[in-house]
Specification:
heterodimer; A: alpha+beta; Aldehyde Oxidoreductase, domain 3; Aldehyde Oxidoreductase, domain 4; 3 domains; seven-stranded mixed β-sheet; 27% helix; B: alpha+beta; Ubiquitin-like (UB roll); DNA polymerase, domain 1; globular
Chain lengths: 743, 161
Amino acid sequence: MTTEFKVIGTKPIRPDVIDKVMGRAIFAPDIMISGLLHGKILRSPYAHARILSIDTSAAEALPGVYAVITSKDLPQTPADNAELKYSRDNFLAGEKVLYEGHPIAAVAADSIHTAEDAIKLIRINYEILTPIMDMREAMKENSPKLHENIRLKSLGQDNGRPGNISLHVQHILGDPEKGFAEADEIVDREFTTTMVHQGYLEAQSSTVLWNPDGNLTVWTTTQGAFSVQSEISRILDISLSKIRVIPTEVGGAFGSKLRIYIEPVVVLLSKFANRPVKITMTQSEVLKATGPTPGTIMRVKMGAKRNGKITSATAELYFEAGAFPGSTAGGSPRLIFTEYDIPNGQVDAFEVLVNKTHVGAYRAPGDVQVTYSMEQVVDELAQKVNMDPIDFRLINVAHEGSISISGTIHKKIGAQQVLEAVKNHPHYKSPLKEANMGRGVAFGYWPNNGRDSSCIINVNSDGSVTLVTGSVDLSGTRLTIAMQAAEVLGISVDQVKSSVGDTSSIGYTGSSGGSRTTFATGLAAIQAAKDVINQMSIRAASLLNVPVSEITFERGFFTTSTSSSAKLSFSELAGKLNQTGGPITGKGNVSPSSWGAGFACHIADVEVDPETGKVSILRYTAIQDVGKAVHPTLVEGQMQGAVVQGIGWALWEGLFYDTQGRMLNSNRLDYKIATFVDIPHIETELIEVPSPFHPFGVRGVAEPAFVPPTATIANAVADALGKRIYSLPMTPEKILRTMDVID
Amino acid sequence: MSKKKVSAKINGQPVEFLCEPRQSLLECLRDVIGITGTKESCNDGNCGACSVLLNGRLVNSCLVFGVEVEGREITTIEGLADWQGLHPIQQIFLDRNVVQCGYCIPGIIIATKALLDREANPSEERIRSWLSGNLCRCTGYDKIVGAVKEAAVILAKEKGV
C-alpha cells in the first residue's frame, strides 16, 4: 500500500465546474438540434381504471402535430413474459391504468404548447376501479387485485393464489426465540414511513433522433448510458448496435435516474414523426410518475442482557412496490442489523402492490427505512439497560469476521473507529439540557458496490493524457477517477483530460450507483494507467537499449537498474512514441467482486417549539469511515448533502395521496425539501480506514452518509419530547399530537 | 397563436425576438433566443433555478411573461463573465468546489449577485434568508454559504468598501 500520495488526498478543482458556473454545461433539457419537435405525454387522472377506448383522431388532426402514439405502437409482448409486460405497461398503459400519472399516449408537435393542446384532444373512456392506497388494505384476502396474474413468491416458491403481495424474503440466524429468552430487556416496536422522492431539480428529459435505417441516437439524463441502451433494446426489440446513448450532464439523480421513464416513448415519437423529438417532464409529472423510495411498515424487536449484549433481533418489513413488482424488499433485509454482531435473528421482508407510482432507488435504497426503525429500538434498549447509547453500540458493533443475520461476513471495516470518534467528539461531550431540546445519535451501514467499469487512456505527445470512462459523472467522479490515474502515471491531475464516454466510445460500464464509481471505475483507471506504463516501458527499453525487465517506472521516470544516468521522463518518452511504434492506448476493464463497506454515525441536537411543533436543528455532526478520501472536499460535500436530504425525510418529506389515489403535493411548494434557512452548518469528521480491496484504500462514501440521518433526528426528537413518534415524517402536527397539545 | 415582437436588452446587448403572449421569459430565453444557462425546474416560482435580474431586480423568469420585458434589461448567468475571466462569485464557487450536480448553480449565482450588488457585508443569516428561494438538493447548502461570504469580501475589496 502506497502511503505517500502525490495526488490522492489533495483538493484540485473539478474540470466540469467552469461550465456549470457559467451556464454552459449541457444538461438534458438544454439539447437543441435542427428540426427538433417537442413531445408531451397524456397521463391518467385516475389511480385505478380500465381503459375502454382511446380516440386520438382529433389530436392527430391538430395542425403542428407530427405523431401520436399509444401502447398499440409497442411491440407485442409474449403472454408468458409478465416482467416485460409490466415494463412496457409502465411506459404506455395497456388495458389498465394503475396510478395517477400513468402514461397512456404521447404526442410530438412543433412546439410544447401545441403538444399540450393536442393531448387535451385525446378522448379516453375509463371504467373507474377502486384504488388500493394502503398496504394493510392491499394485503387483505378479499381486496381488489392490481394484477390478476400476480402470485406471492414466498421464499422462492409460488403460492398459486393471486394477490397484492408479490414477494416474501426471509433470513434466519441461530435461534431467535432462544435469544429472546436469554434477554433481560426486550423492545418491540412498529414504525411506518411514507414514499419519499429523490427531489432532484433536473426533470427526466430525453431527446431522440431516429433514422430510417433503424439507427437511433439518444441524449438523456441518466446514471448509466449502457442501461438506457439495454432498456430501449429490451422494450422496443431493437439491436444494441443500433442504439447510441449519449449521457448529458445530470442535474441530480440519487438513484432515480437508474431506471428510465420516457426514452422508448421518445424513440417511437421520433420514428413516426421522422424528426428529432425531445420530452422534458414537468415537476408534477416527476413527482407523480417516477420512482420514489417505498413507504414501509416495519416491526422490529430486539433483546439484550443487562450487560448490554444484544441476544436476538427480529424484523418484519413491508415495502410498497407501487403499481408493479420490483422494489428494495429483496435487498433491504440484508441491510438491517448488519451494523451489529448479533447471535440470533430473523428478518422477513414483503413487497406489496398499491395504486401508486412504481417505486425506484433512492440513495442507500431501503437501508434508510430499516435503519430508521432499528436504530430507534437500539436507543430504547440502551436506555432500558441504563447505558450510554454509544457504549451500548460499541459492545455490539460488528468487526472483521462478524456474520450478519442475512449471512454477510464483514471484511476490514471501520465501524468501531467511527463509534469511538463519536464518543470523543466535542459535540458528543458538550452539555445540552434546556427544556424542549434533545440529542440523538444513530449508526448506519451501506455495503457499497463493485460491478463492471471500463476506462481508456491515450497518451499525448506532450506527456499529457486523455482519459475516457463509461461512468456518468454525478458530482465529481471525472476528477476523482483522473486523480487515481495521475497518481499511477506520476503526472499532475491537470495533465489528465478526463471525460465521460457514450455507448459507442467506451466499453460497457455499469451505472453510477451504489457508491461504486470512484472505487470501481477508479480501479479501471488504475488498470489502464498501469497498461500505459507497461507499454511505455517496452518503448523505454528499446530507446535505452536494455531488456524491458530492467526498466522500472518511479516518480515519473523510466529508469534502468544498470545505469543511473539513463532515464526518460514520462513526457520525454511520450514525445517519442511515433518513433518507437506509434500511439499508445491503455485500457482497463474491471468487475471487482469485493469492495469495502461504509459505516457512519451522526449526532444531532434539536429543539422542539411546544407551541408550533416546529423542530429546529441546533447542531449536526456526521462522522464516517470513508476509506481513503480521494478528494476530501468532495467527500465532505457528499456527507453534508446526504445529511440535509435525511433531515428533510425526517421532518417534512413524503408523497401524500387522498383516498382516490390523487397526489396531494405534486409540486415544489407542497413537496417541502430543506432550504438554506432550515438547516445549520453540518460538521463532518472523516475517518480513514483503508479498504483492502483498492490499492489506495478507496471506499464508497455517498450512500453510507444517508443511512443515519432520519434515525438520528428521530432519536433527538424523542429525547426532546420524552416520547417517541413511530412514523415519518415527524411533522409539526404529529409532534403536537405526541405532546398532547392537539388531539 | 399570433406572436408579438419584443425589444429588450439581454446581457448588455439589444435583442429583438418574437414570442407568443403565453410564453414565459424563461421559455423565451431558452427556446426562442437559445441561451440555456438559465435552468427550468419547477416552472412555478418555487425553486429559483431560473433566477435572472430584470432591471437589476432578482426575479424567477418562469413567472415573467416574455412580452413583459419590452424595453427592459435582463442579466442572465451568461452575462457575468467576460473573455478576461469569471465574475468573482463564479470564481469562488469554482475554486471552493462548492458545486455538485450544478443544476441550481446559475440561479444561485444570479441570486447571490443580486444580494451582493445591494449589501457589501451580509451576515450568514441574511445570506441564508436571501437565498432561501433557491433550492439545491445535492450540497446541503453548507459550502455555498461559505463561498458567498468569501465572494462578499472580495467584491467589497474591489469596490473599496
